[in-house]
Structure formats: structure tokens, C-alpha cells
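[Discussion] Sanity-checking designs against the backbone

I'm trying to build intuition for which residues belong where. Below is a C-alpha cell string of 119 positions. I'd appreciate it if someone posts a full sequence so I can compare it with mine line by line.
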């Protein structure tokens, strides 16, 4: 099981790496075209933004395909355990995000109170 998981992880990481390298090279080409005046800065930004969105979409699709392929190799019990673990992780992330939001709100309130004292 671990070997299959490692293989899926390696494939995913290789795909993400390839997308990252492609994005870097694309940005270099866009920068060169802007420097040569063949496209405007705004056009370059639009192209870069579109490519970034496409990379995000492709990465998400690749991740989903890898998870689906991995789950096909699992028994029902393994899939249930995997789903339970994902739910635990999601709850932890949600809890951490809520805690960070709370801390940020407290800092802003303290800053607002402090700026009110100094005026």
C-alpha cells in the first residue's frame, strides 16, 4: 500500500513541478515580449493571469485524478478510513482558520483602540 501511495505522490509532485517550470518559462517569454514592445504590460499581465488560472485548474484536476486512481486500489474499509482521516484534517484546518480569524480580529480591535487613545 505504501509503495502505491508513494508512486501516486511522486507522479503528483512531478506534475506540479512540470507546471511550475512551465509557468516560470512562460513568464520569462511574456517579460521578453513586453521588453521588446511586442505586447503591452497590461496584455502581459492578462496572459499571465489566464495561464495561472489554467495551471490552478490543471493541478486540481491532476490531484483529483490521482486521488481517484489511488482510491480504486483501496478496499472499502481503506476508503472509509481515508475519508475519515480527510474529515479529521478538514476539521483541524477549519479550526485553525477560525482561530486565526479570531486572533486577527483581536489584533485589529487592539490597534483600533490604541489609535483611538492617541488621537
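Best answer:
Here's mine. Compare freely.
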Amino acid at each position: 500500500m505504501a509503495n502505491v501511495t508513494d508512486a501516486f505522490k511522486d507522479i503528483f509532485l512531478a506534475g506540479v513541478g512540470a507546471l511550475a517550470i512551465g509557468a516560470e518559462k512562460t513568464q520569462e517569454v511574456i517579460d521578453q515580449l513586453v521588453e521588446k514592445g511586442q505586447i503591452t504590460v497590461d496584455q502581459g499581465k492578462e496572459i499571465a493571469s489566464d495561464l495561472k488560472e489554467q495551471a490552478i485548474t490543471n493541478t486540481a484536476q491532476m490531484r483529483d485524478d490521482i486521488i481517484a486512481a489511488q482510491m480504486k486500489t483501496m478496499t472499502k474499509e481503506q476508503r472509509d478510513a481515508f475519508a475519515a482521516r480527510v474529515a479529521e484534517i478538514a476539521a483541524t484546518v477549519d479550526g485553525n482558520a477560525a482561530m486565526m480569524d479570531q486572533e486577527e480580529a483581536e489584533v485589529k480591535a487592539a490597534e483600533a483602540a490604541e489609535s483611538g487613545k492617541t488621537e
